[in-house]
Amino acid sequence: MTITQSDIAARQQHVEAVRAWVKVAIEDGWEQKPTYKGESVERAATLHKEGFMAMAIMREPMGATGRQTGNRYPNAALNVWGPDKMAVKSTLPYDWEGLMCALHACQFCGKVFEGKAYHVKFADRACQTCGPVEQSKLPPNWAD
Ligand SMILES: [Zn+2]
Q1: C-alpha 128 to ligand 1 mean position (Å)
Q2: What are phi and psi of 94, to 5 degrees?
Q3: The pTM is what?
Q4: How far does residue 76's CA lie from ligand 1's centre (Å)?
Q5: What's the CA-to-centroid distance between 108 and ligand 1, angstroms?
Q6: How far away, in angstroms, is 96 Cα from ligand 1 center?
Q7: Per-residue pLDDT reduced to its tens digit, 38-93
Q8: What is the DSSP string of 33-91?
Q9: Exposed, middle or buried, 96 (CB in 10 Å: 0-12/13-18/19+)?
């Protein structure tokens, strides 16, 4: 895969968007901790609020000290899990209401649903329609 200048610019924008998410989240009461020993919280952070957990990756090739720190290109990711330990879809910018709504959004069809969420694979959240369908696609004895 060839990485172009515009890919790098897009990756850098993603790093900045995730960093902005974290900043607003902390202002909104999330507690921040480093994800990894030996990597600064500015690059990899784990955040908690009201049972939600978020993991943010905000890695840039140049560290604050100006020295090269491993990865060649900017690298960002934001993953959020709900109090039920299932993944919730996060948005950039930060949106607390959106996270609450995402507790009832199916990751397969996108529908917002009432009642119990189906747990598929590691942490995928499915509605009552998609849940049994997605579970039936898994190999036998998957995770149970
Ligand atoms: Zn669904």
Answers
A1: 7
A2: -55, 135
A3: 0.83
A4: 27
A5: 5
A6: 22
A7: 999 999 999 999 999 999 999 988 645 555 556 778 999 999 999 999 999 899 99
A8: EESSTTS-TTTEEEEEETTEEEEEEEE-SB-TTSSB-S-SS-EEEEEEE-TTS-EE---
A9: middle
